[in-house]
Design goal:
The structure is a single chain. This protein is α/β, with parallel strands linked by helices. It has two domains: 234 residues, Aldehyde Dehydrogenase, Chain A, domain 1 (3-Layer(aba) Sandwich), CATH 3.40.605; 150 residues, Aldehyde Dehydrogenase, Chain A, domain 2 (3-Layer(aba) Sandwich), CATH 3.40.309. The protein is built from 14 helices and 16 strands. The strands form four sheets. Strands 10-9-11-8-7-12-13 form a seven-stranded parallel β-sheet. Strands 5-4-3-6 form a four-stranded parallel β-sheet, sandwiched between helices. Strands 1-2-16 form a three-stranded antiparallel β-sheet, with no helix packed on it. Helix 14 links the parallel strand 12 and strand 13. The protein is globular, with a radius of gyration of 24 Å.
Length: 425
């Protein structure tokens, strides 16, 4: 399909026009649309998987990296997850119309602060077809229009999914133009989209640091320009080492290609000689390459052949690996661990493993990150796991939203003032 700058602008304008109707749609209508999406995903499962197989075949021919292949791969379970997400969002309270503040002034004015949709959200994303569904359902429930521009790797899958969404919402009484999908992989259109601040109210990039930085540099509208995850777990001197091992392994290997996966393990020197060999052995089972600083290497020198342990280079700290690779460093104190995180972290997901309540509270209070964890895995940094149903992004920004962005994070508010003839003197 040939799409020009004018065509793309027409799509965004159509979403803007349709979003004004959606903004006042009753919750039951929006919920019915989400249930229709869930049912349509299930009934079209085979066509979704066929399109995904074609995308995967093309990607393999083009030598796409494993981390992208893993992200773009669908199976029965992942298709079911998309349908389940739509039902979960449908079951959540509708945020639109919520009165955030209310007051009566001495002059008789009644003033309310009320939650409303943002308008139109633009999303530029790479690889992951579930993003098409997650963002569409969150935008519909929150009363927003959306313009979706997926990557070339999943163009067939995303086109099928977007078509399913548009047909389903129309059947439920919501204008199909609320959801727009850019059926072109022309990269020039990305910059064009970033200049459409007259019809797009917020831009969200989902993908590589290069994409996020490009959006931050060129977007004329507000943009969520954080989200890259360089995630640490600090194993304290008073950690339960069995728990620490299970948590660190989960954070690294459960799904290493996502932004909340662990990248660096920081280990207190008091437990390093006991903990490091166990960690290296467990990582070896899962084929994780461990890149160890000088002190950690001295502990691991005696390991049996077959474990993947190599000396760390400077750029192994502060890197989002998105692969079965983790760096490890021995530190002398919790203060040293927090200093390392402050220097190398991306303010995404940071964790401490400890049974010392004072150390836990210090870490949770002092570490500057969107989400800080104690005695659990960074892999929990996820909208669904937080009870939000899904997320449009995990933001490391401090304005206007931080962490998993669910329904409320893609709304704003307006003031309603009711009077009885008052004039200001």
């Amino acid at each position: 399909m040939t799409i020009t700058s004018a065509t793309l602008h027409d799509q965004a304008k159509a979403a803007s026009t349709a979003s004004r109707r959606l903004a006042t749609a009753p919750a039951e209508v929006k919920n019915a649309a989400l249930i229709a999406i869930a049912e349509a995903i299930e009934s079209n499962r085979q066509s979704i998987l066929r399109a995904n197989e074609q995308d995967l075949e093309a990607a393999k021919c083009n030598d796409i990296p494993f981390k992208l292949l893993e992200r773009m791969t669908l199976n029965n379970s992942r298709v079911k997850d998309m349908a389940d997400a739509a039902r979960t969002i449908a079951a959540l309270d509708d945020p639109i119309g919520e009165v955030l503040d209310s007051r009566d002034r001495p002059n008789g004015l009644h003033i309310e602060k009320v939650r409303v949709p943002l308008g139109v959200i633009g999303v530029i994303y790479e690889s992951r077809p579930n993003v098409t569904i997650d963002i569409a359902i969150l935008c519909i429930k929150s009363g927003n229009g959306v313009v979706l521009r997926g990557g070339k790797e999943c163009i067939l899958t995303n086109t099928v999914l977007a078509g399913i969404v548009k047909e389903a919402i129309e059947s439920a009484g919501i204008p199909r133009d609320v959801v727009q999908f850019v059926e072109s992989t022309d990269r020039a259109l990305v910059k064009e989209m970033l200049e459409m601040d007259d019809v797009i109210d917020l831009m969200i990039p989902r993908g590589s640091a290069e994409l996020v930085n490009f959006v931050g540099e060129h977007a004329r509208m507000p943009a969520i320009t954080g989200g890259v995850g360089v995630c640490h777990t600090y194993v304290d001197a008073q950690a339960n080492l069995d728990d620490a091992l299970a948590i660190v392994v989960n954070a690294k290997v459960q799904r290493p290609t996502v932004c909340n996966a662990l990248d660096t393990v920081l280990i207190h020197q008091g437990v390093a000689r006991e903990f490091l060999p166990s960690l290296a052995a467990e990582f070896g089972i899962h084929e994780v390459e461990l890149r160890a600083d000088t002190r950690a290497m001295s502990v691991l020198d005696a390991l049996a052949d077959g474990t993947k342990v190599v000396p760390a280079q400077e750029d192994d700290f502060g890197t989002e690996f998105l692969a079965l690779i983790a760096s490890v460093k021995i530190v002398d104190s919790i203060g040293d661990a927090m200093d390392h995180i402050a220097e190398y972290g991306s303010k995404h997901s940071e964790a401490i493993i400890s049974e010392n309540a004072e150390a836990i509270e210090r870490f949770l209070n002092e570490v500057d990150a969107a989400v800080v964890f104690a005695n659990t895995s960074t892999y929990f940094n996820d909208g669904a796991q937080f009870g939000l149903g899904a997320e449009v992004a995990i933001s490391t920004n401090k304005l206007h939203a931080r962490g998993p962005m669910g329904l409320k994070e893609i709304t704003t508010y307006k003031w309603k003032v009711r009077g009885a003839g008052q004039i200001r003197q």
